[in-house]
């Protein structure tokens, strides 16, 4: 089995290498989502990416590592998006209820419908032998939210004996519930009024328990 090469590269060659790597990841994501991990071949990925099969192996080693790379890339994009929502919506100078509602609403109406999130869910839902994210990486967004809830607790805005459990409750009452409803009836994804009311009820329930 080939292993990825790590020889030093000039800036121009490094750029070409990065472009090939991105093309391979794009092609692999499209095929893994549409065809599945087991059915998709390295030959098909190489053809879609317009590179040689050897180039795919040089960059990723094998198909499992490539699938892992696709998952991690999508996870990184989602983590960056959610961290931005935390930083921009859960600000210290904002009313807590308003901030929590704005955060959950933004994730539900902007992140959930995105192609990145839709593909990430489809990839992550594939049955073995498809790989999974390494332990710890799949709950990075929750840990970021835990840190913000801890800051609210330190200020006395929330009573949070267990920040992790509080985050789980908040997600379950708002974003997870909204996602479940959307999965049952995709048309509700476009009904912002209904989602707004659902999230508002969840935020109120959370605050009754933790404020």
Description:
Residues 41-60 bind DNA. Residues 18-78 form the HTH tetR-type domain. This is TetR/AcrR family transcriptional regulator. Pfam families: TetR_C_7, TetR_N. This protein has 211 residues and is an all-alpha fold. The protein has helices at residues 11-35, 42-49, 53-60, 63-89, 96-111, 115-124, 140-155, 163-173, 175-184, 192-210. The longest helix is centred in the middle third of the chain and has 27 residues, at 63-89. The termini are far apart. The mean pLDDT is 90.
Which secondary structure elements does this structure contain, and how are they paired or packed?
Layout: H1 11-35, H2 42-49, H3 53-60, H4 63-89, H5 96-111, H6 115-124, H7 140-155, H8 163-173, H9 175-184, H10 192-210
Protein name: TetR/AcrR family transcriptional regulator
Organism: Saccharopolyspora endophytica
Keywords: DNA-binding
Pick out its properties.
0% strand; 10 helices; mainly alpha; TetR_C_Proteobacteria; 211 residues; TetR/AcrR family transcriptional regulator
A few lines on this structure:
This protein is mainly alpha-helical and 211 residues long. The protein has helices at 11-35, 42-49, 53-60, 63-89, 96-111, 115-124, 140-155, 163-173, 175-184, 192-210. It contains ten helices and no strands.
Order of helices and strands: HHHHHHHHHH
Oligomer: single chain
Q: Can you count the helices?
A: 10
Arithmetic mean of pLDDT: 90
Distance between the termini: 56 Å
- Give the fraction of residues assigned to helices: over 70%
- DSSP strand tally: 0
Counting helices, strands and paired strands, the structural category is mainly alpha
Biggest beta sheet attributes: none
Binned strand content: under 5%
Radius of gyration: 20 Å
């Amino acid at each position: 089995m080939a292993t990825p090469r790590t020889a030093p590269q000039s800036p121009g060659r490094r750029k070409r290498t990065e472009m090939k790597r991105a093309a391979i990841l794009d092609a692999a994501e499209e095929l893994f989502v549409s065809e599945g991990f087991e059915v998709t071949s390295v030959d098909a990925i190489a053809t879609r990416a317009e590179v040689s099969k050897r180039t795919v192996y040089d960059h990723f080693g094998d198909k499992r590592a490539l699938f892992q790379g696709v998952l991690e890339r999508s996870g990184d994009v989602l983590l960056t998006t959610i961290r931005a929502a935390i930083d921009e919506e859960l600000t210290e100078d904002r009313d807590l209820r308003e901030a929590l509602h704005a955060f959950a609403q933004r994730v539900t109406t902007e992140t959930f419908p995105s192609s990145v999130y839709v593909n990430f869910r489809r990839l992550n839902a594939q049955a073995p032998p498809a790989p999974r994210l390494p332990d710890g990486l799949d709950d990075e967004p929750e840990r970021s939210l835990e840190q913000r809830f801890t800051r609210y607790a330190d200020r006395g805005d929330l009573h949070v004996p267990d920040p992790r459990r509080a985050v789980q409750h908040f997600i379950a009452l708002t974003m997870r519930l909204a996602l479940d409803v959307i999965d049952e009836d995709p048309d509700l994804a476009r009904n912002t009024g209904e989602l707004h009311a659902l999230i508002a009820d969840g935020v109120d329930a959370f605050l009754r328990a933790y404020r």
